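Final report, results section. Input specification for complex C-07:
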Amino acid sequence: AIWRPPFIQTLLSIWRGDPQIQQPSTTRRSSPADITVEHEEEENQPTATMTSRDKLSSATNRRSATAAADRVAMPPSKLVTEQPTEISTNSQANSSPSPQTTPKATASVQLNGDRIPSFSLSTDPASAAAIARTVEANTWPSALPTLSAPSPPPESLVRHQYDRQPGTSTLAPPPTHSSKPAKPSRKVTLEPGRSPLDWARLANNPSSDLRNLGPGAPYLRVTPSMLRRQTGRKGKDAWTVLGGRVYNITPYLPFHPGGEPELLRAAGRDGSKLFGEIHPWVNYETMLSSCLIGLLVEEHEAKSTGEMDAMD
Ligand code: HEM
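Structure output:
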């Protein structure tokens, strides 16, 4: 083989129309084998004047000479020889097998001025480390969107939106005095004709004897012993004491909104405290005026019906 300067060989290759020489790729690794294949196809065209041995010898000499010249003339790819320091230091990761099975994006940082990373699919285990170090080095262009996840909403907003307590809707009207009381009602369903108006009509009828003492009977001085016998049982009327006065509550029992058993709790004794605990606003004096028996007196004070008339 005749020694020729490298640039001469390069010019010859360009003149021959070798695509590998005319359009060198910056991303593909140029190897002498690649170029040799091109020449091999070209040189394998047989001629009539060459023997098979001459053709073999000629082709071999040309290939070796061309490959040697290309190695000198064509600098290796920068991606192969000029790896960043941080990537080349991960040769240990290259040698050890990685359990990663899915392809990962790899960063190849070009050091020709613009530090814009490019990515390609690869199973190289050093790629992840290269990406991480590239990001840490803040080489991302500012125009590219970041991959950071949006921050979650504040805990207070989540709690107010999804954990609203019943009855606290912002659409509900503000609480007023017409709202139901917290204590459940203990009223009972009364029989027809037992309404407060029915009671008022009956109580104001002069022909009604709600005292059950006979027509024109005077007011009585009632002793505690007399009161205890008026329990509403064994055919006797139910008397109670409200504010020192004795009333016959027997005719009112079917009209009592709280039910007869409730009203009978005060029968035969002083019901003032019990009454005041449940409904002190009720005007019992007016409602039971026609049921008045007399005054509660001490045991020795009960003398005559004449004194009972003085209660008026
Ligand atoms: C002293 C024994 C009495 C007891 C233990 C008693 C008990 C009750 C109870 C438990 C209620 C239902 C309260 C509710 O949850 O709404 C009630 C209602 C009522 N009671 Fe009595 N009561 C007594 C005497 C009387 C008397 C003497 C009168 C009148 C003559 C009366 C008139 C009423 C009225 C008008 C209501 C309805 C109150 C309302 O609409 O809020 N009670 N009573």
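Residues 6-76 form one domain. Strands lie at 104-108, 118-122, 220-222, 239-242, 245-248, 292-296. This concludes the modelling results for the funded period.
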